[in-house]
Structures are given as C-alpha cells and as structure tokens.
Amino acid sequence: MTVSTEGMKVNWGSRTLRASVELLSSMRFSISLLTVICIASVIGTVLKQQEPLGNYVNQFGPFWAQVFSLASLNTVYSAWWFLLILAFLVISTSLCIARNTPKILADYSQLKEDVREQSLKAFGHRAQAALAESPEAAARRIGQTLVQSGWKVKLQQRSAGWMVAAKTGSANKLGYIAAHSAIVLICIGGLLDGDMMVRAQMLLGDKSTFTGGGLIADVPAEHRLSERNPTFRANLLVAEGTQSSTAILNQPGGILLQELPFAIELKKFSVEYYSTGMPKLFASDIVIHDKATGEKTTALVEVNHPASYKGIEIYQSSFDDGGSSVTLKAIPMSAASNPFEIQGTIGGTSALTNGQGAGAEQLTLEYTALRVINVENFAGVSGTSSSPGADVRKVDLHKAIETRLGAANKTVTQKKLRNVGPSVSYKLRDAAGQAREFQNYMLPVKMDDNPDTPAMFLMGVRENTVDAFQYLRIPADPESSTATFVRLRAALAAPAQRDEAVRRYTRLAVGTDRPELAQQLNESASRALALFAGSEAASVPAAGASAGKVKPVAGLQAISDFMEANVPQAERERAGEVLVRILNGVLFELTSMTREQAGLKPLAQDEKTQAFMSQMVLSLSDAPHYPAPMAFELKDFKQVQASVFQVARAPGKTIVYLGCAFLILGIFAMLYIRERRIWVWLAPLAAAPAPGNAESAGGTEAMHSVSESAGKAQATMALSTNRKTMDGDKEFEMLKTKLLQAPL
Prior knowledge:
Blueprint: H1 15-24, H2 27-46, H3 53-60, H4 62-70, H5 80-108, E1 125-131, H6 135-148, E2 152-158, E3 161-168, H7 171-193, H8 196-204, E4 224-225, E5 232-239, E6 243-251, E7 254-273, E8 279-290, E9 296-302, E10 307-309, E11 312-321, E12 325-332, E13 341-345, E14 349-354, E15 361-371, E16 375-377, E17 417-419, E18 423-429, E19 435-441, E20 456-462, E21 470-475, H9 483-492, H10 495-509, H11 515-533, H12 555-566, H13 569-597, H14 607-622, E22 630-638, E23 641-649, H15 652-672, E24 676-684, H16 693-696, H17 706-709, E25 713-721, H18 726-739
C-alpha cells in the first residue's frame, strides 16, 4: 500500500467546506505548515527574543525595530500567528493520520495471497524452476523455510496448484503512523508548555501585564497568576540569605507575576571560573519552604541538574548581584566638581548635584553592576613606555578577548590572561534622562612587563550598550592611588598654584643672573601651562562658528591649536618640541609642589618617574574630554550573590518526550526497515508448464509422458519491495537459492 498525499474527500457539506477539508487533511498542506514553522524557528534563533525595544532600535534602527514589533518577530514562539500555525499543523497532521491509518492497519496483516499466477511474471525480481517434489510438499517446505526466517506466511490451495504468500518488514508502515503521531504530540506539548494558557487567562480571566515599578508585594492582583496555573515558565531571583515565592513571566509590553506554592531560600551560591574568567560551574544550596504545610526541604540546584517539588522544576539559570553595597570616591574631572565619597547598593540610585546655585546640574547615579573577578587578555596590548604618545581613549580591554572554541578555557588566539580585580559599573543620568555607562576598575592595572611603566587606573565609558568601552588611563602614584592626579587637576585650576610652579621652574632652569631670559621663559611657561589648563582659549575659530568665537579647549590639543594659529609652519616642529619640554618641566614642578603640600616625599629623578609623568601628561590632557564632571573610583564593597532560577510547570514535557520517542522509532522504521513480499506459485509440472517453456524447447516438453512428470512441480517465484536497493537484489538471489533448492 502507498500512503496517499491527497486530502480527505467527504460527501457532505458545501463545496467550500469539502475543499477546505481536503486541503487541511492533505500531506502537502502539512509539509507547507512545517516549512513555515522551520523558517520562523530560524528567525527566533538568529534574532534575540524578548529583548527591550531599545536594544532592537540600537542594533537595527527604528524602522526594523518597528517591523519586528508589529510582526512579533521579537517574540516568535509566543506570537499569535506561530501558535495558530502550530494548531493548524496539529489538525492537519491528525487528519492525515486518520485518513491513512485504517488503510495501513488493514494492509498490515494482509498477505495478498489471491494474486494471480500470471501477474508474477510482471515483477522485476522473478525466477522459475522445476522441483523434484509435489506442489503441496514444495509449498509446505517453502512456507516452513520462510517462517523460520521471520516471514509471515500463508498457504493457499487452488484447483491448479498451491500459492505461497509471505511478507516481512510490516513495521515500515507503522513508522509512518509513529512519525506523524510524533509531530502531533510534540506540537501539543509545545502548545501546552507555551504561552497559550497564559494568553487564555489574560483574555478570559481579566489578567493584564504590569508595566510599573516598585515592590513586588504592591503589585495588584490583576497582574498575578494563581498557584494553580497549569503551565508556566518564569524566572525567580533570590539573593543569599533571603527567600522568594513570586516569579516573573516576561510578556510583550510588561510582566506577569507567578505565585508559587512554596518559597525558595538561597543559603549559599557557589561559582567556579575557568582561567579565562568565564563561569565553569555554579550551583545553589536552597531550602524549599512549603506554604501549606511549613515543611522545609533542602536541595542542591546545578546547571543541568534541576530540583523538583510538587510538579514544578527548579532550574539553575544564571546568577546576578543580590544587592552588594559599594563605596565610591568621586574623582573631579571639571573645576565645578569636588572629591567626595558616596555609598550605594547595586540596583539602587543616588541623587547628585554638580555645581552651586541656580545653574547646578542635577544628576542621578545608578549603580548597575559589581564584578569581583575580571580576567582580561593582555596579549598584544602595548605599554605606555613603548608608545607614550598613544591615544588612551582607544584602549579597549574587552575586545582583546577573542572568540573561543571548545571549552570556555580554550582559545585559538595568543593569550596572556590576568585577573585585574574588581570593577564597578554605573550610569550617570542627567535631568533630561540621557545616560552614559561607566566601568571603572578598583585596582591599578599593569599594562605591560616594563618595570618602569606605571600601573593604570582604568576609567571606562561608552555612550550605548552596544558600543565597546573606551578607557581613560590614570597612572597610579607611588602611594598606588589617584591622589596625585586629583591634586594636579585642582592645582591646574588655581592660577596662584600655576604661577608658583612657573617661578620654580624658571628659577631652576635659568637661575637669577639672567633676568631677561628668565622673563621670556616665564612668559612662555605661563602661556603653555595656561593653555594646557584650559584657562586661556586658543585663538582658533571653531568649525562653523562666527568670527570672534573660539574653541574652549585644553590639554595638548590647546597647545597644538595655538601653534597652528601663531607659529609659521616651518618653525612649528622646533617650537613645539621646546614648548612641550617646558610644559613637562612645569608640570613636574607642580607635581612636586602638590606632594610637598600633602606632606609626601618628592618624586625621585629616575626613569620610573619620567614614565609616570609622561602618562600623567596624557591623562591630564584627556581629562577635559571625559564626558562627565566626575569619575567614581571603587574604594570598598561587600558582595552579596544572587541566584537566578527558572521555575517551570510543564505538563507537556512528558508528551514531548513521548513524541520524541515516537519520532525516533518512526524514522528508524521508515528508513531502515524495508517491507518485502514474496509469492511462490507451485503447480504440477505437466499441468502447468512455465510460460514460454514450450516455445523455447521447440515442443519437446509436450512429448514427455505424464508418468515422467508425475509428482514434480513447476515453481514461479516473485519478490516485491517498497525500496529498490542492492540489498534487495542480494536477498532475492539468496531466497531463490534457498527456496528453489530442489531442481530436477
């Protein structure tokens, strides 16, 4: 029997209804639906699902973000059209099974022994032979041989002889039923474990998504799902030492809260790392508190080793910060800001005021993340001693870690991994709601192996979350702090401090016996330091600005602009070298002054100090470009871990597992089991000579006497298989030898 791809034909209803039933029950329609589901699944795999709309806008632009939202491509697996296609696939495949199963079952035990003997000569595999035994004896011998070989056999006695009909491999057709039933079971399981039940409660049970903020306990009942919810898959964050019984279901446009019949208490969270800093193993020691009985059950939840309680699976999904406390120290980046310390909690905010009076800027400090371990790849990162003029704003540690293959601690790239210690991430949001993200390391980082190169405090910043961090590097002073940088920034903003540094530098460079040269050097040094500090604007018109307006620049850029505006091009290189040398000398004197005022010993006159001052000049030059009035340095912290669990009640899981088993069995049966049928027609030799033998023998067989052919049989054998293979040819030759082994 061949399975039909046509649809079910009914004799009732209108013409449109009959055509719809025929289309819906046809195999080609099921295959079309399955193709659409595969394409949608590819989209759902490539495109990150259930991300905030802003992420899609940043990555693809507003037009495509709107397209994704309208077509629900950002929530493919819970989209109404995807669930509708699944439902139609279930109906279509079920109708295909219902249409073909009766035929398959009827054909399963049918051996087709009524086939006419003349039809056997039309088969591709056929053979004839004369046997030295009667038709009945030959039929019983052949039947017994086939039964011993696992064939299902039936003997039929006819007036002209005996027909032996046999079949094996009937499970091939059962594979069709199993494979198609598997599709139905998997789709039903997917529908049960998907958002269908939640959507139904939202439509029929007056439930709606929640879009506000505040405490979970204050969320109204219309945004909560009952403990008796038959199916859900939600996330639950529990900090160490706390417990929670309310999980969160992310939905398009908001969230729903799922109440659990128990509370999960996190006693301890453990995490192990690879040498690359990536998590190797994380696990949670939990206590499950039953709300109804008060019973406490301890469990260990690891990745791929969930805990189960009252039909709800508890999976280890990820981990997060549980509200660590941090102490930050503000590093002024503008004259309007002052150093101070502030304490906060990860996930919380603090209000800041930059400046005084009516023009004060209102800022919000958002504490976003604390990372205790930061393993970075320093292979190929150049140090400041080898390239002191490098643009420090282009340093990007995170891009140094390349793509890994295999285990998380393997990489095909050159690597020089080092744990650079804790870091804090935060956002500074202005009154208009605009925010930048910052990432600062607590400890100074040694960028290369040169002993003279100072360690750097890394202050990272980026405008968008999709961008890489750009780092300002501040050299650590002999006290391993940023205090020297802070004092120099304050001294540069004070004219009296700058004048005193210039006088000290002039006195050391020229002395007191050459007043005219000292006066010239004093003026040049004052001009250079004022330009570097940004207190004297370079006389260079800003791009697109009207005449008379100048760029308020500082640092090395201000000196460069001044040179372009006031020094002939032929003399710029020599004059620039002189001016930068003067600037370095004055800044060294300013550094010495600030250390004396702080009661610290002066810097030694050696290569290490020279490297320190070279990097300090670059840091001071880049500080005015820092896009915030202050940077926050991590001074202290108290880490609190949190574990993210996925809690799921999945009644369709068992159905899906059963469907997978059916699918494996069905595909195995259809691909590796061949249905074969064999017929052997046995007739008395004289009564039924083989077709064509009389002509080929020239009529000599007719001359044999009846007595000579008595007790002998003429056998005609034919083999049919559902797939033509080389194995089928070999099997036919073997059967021909085995069954027709009694020739005359």
